Structure formats: structure tokens, C-alpha cells
Amino acid sequence: xxxxxxxxxxxxxxxxxxxxxxxxxxxxxxxxxxxxxxxxxxxxxxxxxxxxxxxxxxxxxxxxxxxxxxxxxxxxxxxxxxxxxxxxxxxxxxxxxxxxxxxxxxxxxxxxxxxxxxxxxxxxxxxxxxxxxxxxxxxxxxxxxxxxxxxxxxxxxxxxxxxxxxxxxxxxxxxxxxxxxxxxxxxxxxxxxxxxxxxxxxxxxxxxxxxxxxxxxxxxxxxxxxxxxxxxxxxxxxxxxxxxxxxxxxxxxx
Length: 254
Known about the structure:
By secondary structure, the chain is mostly helical.
């Protein structure tokens, strides 16, 4: 017969540790700060290399800049993913509001994610941006990096842009930040704040052209809805990767 007294007096199971809002904000800021810190030793070295006559004659300056950027992104992303998994290991494999969403997704959910990535920004988002820009050119920093570099020098950036970058950004915004906010405010408010933060964080890569904000916010809303409705982070990662792939194809197209 079970010991009812012992059962009644047993403490409830401990809640799953999850990021607090300030911890989540600090984690997102740490990712971008880490990129800056890693660039401090890289870019002076790059500038010195660019002064070497042999490298300049070969036209490798743009390639070196792109490779330095790739190394910066690679190290910052891997360090951040490792840190997040170490800080919140029990939240990592959960798909509910307290988790980070690293649970398997069905093929239907993955297909939905791919369709979102291939339609929301390329079609609706681009139309909104063009409407607001009134014919002004829309530039992104990665466009210049990739366009100026040689064919084979572009390959590492292309791979990072469609694999690791979507993974770490979805983990930060639709994992850590969204989880922290959903435990303290309504779903709509949490999605709205997370999407606004994502849009503002990416505005610098568009040279602070304000008319890129609505499309970025719309894309972030779609990614957050994917995370909440599917319970998994993977459909959003796939949507993000598909969107980035289309952007790369547009940059490399003649």
C-alpha cells in the first residue's frame, strides 16, 4: 500500500528553469556584442593584410573581408548556442511556453515553414518595402560583401546564411526571448515585442533605412506564429533559411 502521508508531504516537482526577461534581453544583446568583440582583433589584422602588395594585386581584399565576417559569425553563433544550451538545459527540449522549442516537427509543419519563408518576405514583404521606399534603392550590407568577393570566397557566407544564422537567430528571438515573455505577458504581447526586437536588431544591416522595418516585423510575426502554433523551433528555422536562400539567389543573379 502506498504511503499516503509521504505522498501528501512530498514537494511538488520543480518548475522548468527558463530565461527571465532581463536574462533573455541580455542574451540577445550579448550575441551582437560578441560579434563586435570578435571583430576587434580580426579587422585590424585584415587592414594590415590589405596593405600587402601581393594580396592587393591578386584582388583578395574583398575576399578577406568576407572571410573575416564569416569567421566572426561562425564563432559568435557557436558560442551563443553552446551557452544557451548550458544555461537552460531543461527548457531546451520543451515545446510549450516555458521551453525553447527544440522538439521534432512533422513534415507538414516543415512544409508550412518553407512556404512561409518563400512567400512572406519575398512577395508581401518586398511589396510593402517597395511601396514605402518610393523608388529609393534598398541596400543591405551583406549584398556588398558578397557581390565584391570572388566566386569561391562567397561559399562560406552562403552556407552560414542558410544554416547557422537562421538557427541561432531563431533560438535567440523565438526561443529565449519569446519563452521569457510568454511566461509574464499574453501571447499577443510577447509575439509583438519579440517581433519588434527582431526588426530593430536587423535594421542596421539595411543601413538604417526605416522602410525595411515593416517587412522585417511582418516576417518576425510569421516566424513567431510558427513557433507558437507548431510548438517547435524547426519550422521557423526552415522558413528563415528559405528566405535567406532566396535573398542570396537575388544577390548573385545578374
